[in-house]
Amino acid sequence: MTEGWYGGPPDKRGRPARPHGGSQQWLFAALPAFPLALLVARLWYASRQDTQTLLLLVQHVSALGLLTAVLLTTLWVLPAFVLVARALGTLYRVSTGRSSWLSLAADRVPDWVVVLSVLTGLASWQLRFLPTLAMLSLAVLGLTVHDRAPGRRDLAVLLTLVLPAVVAAGLYLWLAPAIGQAFAAGDTVTAVLLTLPPGLSVLLTGPIPARAAAVLTSALAVSLLVVAPLFSAAVVVQAPILPLVGMEVSRESEDAEIAGKVLLGYVITADDRFSTFLDRDGTVRFIPNGVVLSQFLCPDLGQIPHSRVALHRWYVEHSVLAWFAPDPLEKPSDPRCPGRPAGYGRDRPRPAGG
After folding, report:
1. Cβ atoms of 259 and 304 closer than 8 Å
2. Domain residue extents for the chain
3. Is the sign of the CA dihedral 226, 118, 327, 62 positive or negative?
């Protein structure tokens, strides 16, 4: 009796038997709760583990803003998860001739989801990750050919050897200026991300020894299941929950700790008497509106690119969407954003060491 597509014998009507998924229902039921857990973790991180501050943030912070941070993270994490899972599952089957939980999970990913994941990654991933995207896409394509058309040697040679070699050569020609800049600047991470994946793509499109496949695919799959949620949470908990605002306080303020200073943080809420302000260190302050001289937006220093490597004015930390989007308005940053009042340096001396 032959095995069905999902590894079990066909049923009485000749259709392949699907695996028993009752034990997996809890996983699908828990998936919608993951974004909610990330939102709560972000507020808990911003409140510095203080319950009252957490409740204050839950009451006033927009859930849509937090959900946007989760969706932006998912937008580039999900394609990697889909492509790696599909590649590992197919690699196990074509290498061992058997099915496992990983190959069964890969079978549940439709081809159109794989194509959509590639297009999403192409638009949302940074330039330095696009060679990795090409490597994963070629690996999925080559392994799928070995899996579904094992007798088509001509097709296998074309899509698993010729195509990866041509794509690798094209990528190296296109990325050559950026690779040279990365090595010259000592940017090792960027140099490796731009140089290594195109060459590896030629080696990842076919089967490997069965024993190595069983160990490698299981280890990588478990690592992905553990690291992906943790990495997503680490990115989300550092995402901004509110616009970064500077608030200049008058010297007439009754609070000597903030009198005559510039506070940097987030305005949680404001009414006709007080502004509820969250410092960047997690301190909540209720500041009377009468002592607030001005408020102004400040840039998020965490969004400043760390690498200056570029390709045709396209920085390696920018995505295709950022490359085609209009350039940001050229406007100087407010000099008070470092925390210095407007009159600093003119009407009073600098402090020692400043």
Report:
1. no
2. 1-31, 34-236, 245-297+318-324
3. negative
Question: Is the CB of residue 21 less than 8 Å from the CB of residue 219?
Answer: no
Residue 191 in tokens:
């140099």
b/e map of 115-136 (b: 16 or more CB within 10 Å)?
Answer: eebbebbbebbbbbbbbbbbbb
Phi, psi of 353 (to 5 degrees): 80, 0
The Cα 212–Cα 224 span in angstroms is 18
Dihedral pair phi/psi, residue 236, rounded to 5°: -70, -40
Question: Is the whole model's pTM more than 0.90, yes or no?
Answer: no
* Assigned CATH topology for domain 245-297+318-324: SH3 type barrels. (2.30.30)
What is d(CA 49, CA 53) in angstroms, rounded to the nearest whole number?
8
Chain center to CA of 153: 38
C-beta of residue 320 within 8 angstroms of C-beta of residue 311: no
- Give residue 48's Cα distance to chain centre: 24
Q: What is the pLDDT along the chain (354 residues), one digit of tens a residue?
A: 444 444 444 444 343 444 444 445 565 566 566 667 777 777 787 777 788 888 888 877 777 767 776 677 677 788 988 999 899 999 999 888 888 888 888 888 889 999 999 999 998 898 999 999 999 999 999 999 988 888 888 888 888 889 999 999 999 999 999 999 999 988 888 999 999 999 898 888 888 888 888 888 888 888 888 887 787 777 777 777 788 888 888 888 888 888 888 888 888 888 888 888 888 877 888 888 888 888 888 776 555 667 788 887 788 888 887 777 666 555 556 677 766 676 544 444 433 333
